[in-house]
């Protein structure tokens, strides 16, 4: 989506005709520009981009200014609703179909072979923030990789289930590679340590994919004060940086590259050929074969 494709009738006035302050106008102009660079962002990612541009202050007050203007822009039709991603809200509903033929066709078209079966490794991406899940799941779904959203500190139940799957895979000679995406602060590092501690070391290789010190330095990521309410805040060393501070394109590329490095392209291609043949066979059973 290009920025020029979005008109901004409320650049000087709100939807109700009231004049906007300079900061609000600057926020709106910058947000429209971001639509030309990114397909989707969280509100916090937008805030960090605007903070680095000097449009808002690096405070919760600055975040609220961005949050308020983004919401108003969406309600006024200036900013598409889909531009702001939110993985924290979802619904549960059983799948249903028009009839049995519709079901069979759906199953045949959506058939996916386990392409990892010949790779002798399984990958898991662990993500601290479900607000970013909609962005990361595009990559993990493409590669058929589990996305584990922990919402901060993982529960004992969540960790035990993951450990059980890793041990089962190891019993069949398959090692699990865990890549973690967590804030660089006391809470994020504590949550990442819990994953590393609870998953069986013999079966799992753990790696911190983000946020790392190298990324903070190389990408000049904006920092924030450590949360004083965290019980380990006084022990925390170095700058605190949220996962949202990483631009969306870099975050997605990190995950994609991490997965690709474990793939044998030749073996993967052979599995894809077999998958397509099997899909054609299933479609033939429905009378819709190619």
Describe the overall structure:
With 290 residues, the chain is α/β, with parallel strands linked by helices. It has ten helices and four strands. 28% of the residues are buried. Helices cover 44% and strands 8% of the residues. Helix 4 (100-109) packs antiparallel against helix 10 (265-285) and helix 5 (133-142) runs parallel beside helix 9. It is globular, with a radius of gyration of 22 Å. The protein has helices at 22-34, 43-52, 60-75, 100-109, 133-142, 156-171, 186-198, 213-218, 248-260, 265-285, and strands at 121-127, 147-149, 175-181, 204-210.
Descriptive terms for the model:
8% strand, four-stranded parallel β-sheet, 44% helix, 290 residues, disordered N terminus, single chain, alpha/beta, globular
Count of separate DSSP helical elements: 10
What does the main sheet amount to?
4 strands, parallel
Query: Percent of residues in beta strands?
Result: 5-15%
Number of strands: 4
Distance between the termini: 34 Å
Strand order of the largest sheet: 2-1-3-4
Radius of gyration: 22 Å
Shape: globular
Q: Which oligomerization state do the chains in this entry correspond to?
A: single chain
Low-confidence stretches: 1-7
């Amino acid at each position: 989506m290009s920025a020029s494709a979005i008109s901004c009738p409320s650049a000087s006035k709100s939807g109700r005709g009231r004049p906007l302050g300079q900061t609000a106008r600057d926020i709106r102009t910058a947000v429209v520009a971001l639509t030309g660079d990114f397909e989707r962002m969280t509100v916090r990612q937008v805030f960090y981009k605007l903070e680095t541009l000097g449009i808002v202050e690096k405070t919760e007050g600055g975040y609220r200014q961005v949050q308020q203007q983004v919401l108003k822009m969406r309600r006024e039709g200036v900013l598409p609703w889909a531009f702001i991603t939110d993985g924290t809200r979802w619904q549960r509903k059983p799948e249903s179909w028009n009839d049995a033929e519709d079901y069979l066709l759906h199953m045949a078209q959506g058939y996916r072979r386990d392409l990892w079966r010949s790779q002798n490794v399984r990958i898991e991406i662990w993500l601290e923030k479900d607000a970013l899940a909609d962005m990361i799941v595009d990559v993990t779904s493409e590669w058929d990789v589990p996305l584990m959203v922990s919402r901060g500190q993982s529960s004992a139940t969540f960790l035990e289930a993951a450990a059980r799957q890793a041990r089962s895979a190891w019993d069949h000679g398959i090692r699990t590679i865990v890549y973690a995406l967590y804030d660089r602060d006391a809470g994020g590092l504590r949550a990442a340590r819990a994953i590393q501690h609870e998953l069986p070391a013999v079966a799992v290789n753990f790696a911190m994919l983000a946020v790392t010190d190298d990324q903070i330095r190389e990408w000049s990521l904006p920092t924030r004060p450590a949360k004083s309410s965290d019980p380990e805040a006084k022990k925390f060393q170095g700058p605190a940086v949220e996962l949202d501070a990483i631009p969306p394109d870099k975050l997605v590329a990190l995950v994609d590259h991490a997965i690709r490095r474990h793939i044998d392209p030749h073996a993967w291609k052979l599995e894809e050929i077999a998958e397509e043949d099997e899909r054609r066979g299933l479609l033939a059973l429905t009378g819709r074969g190619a």
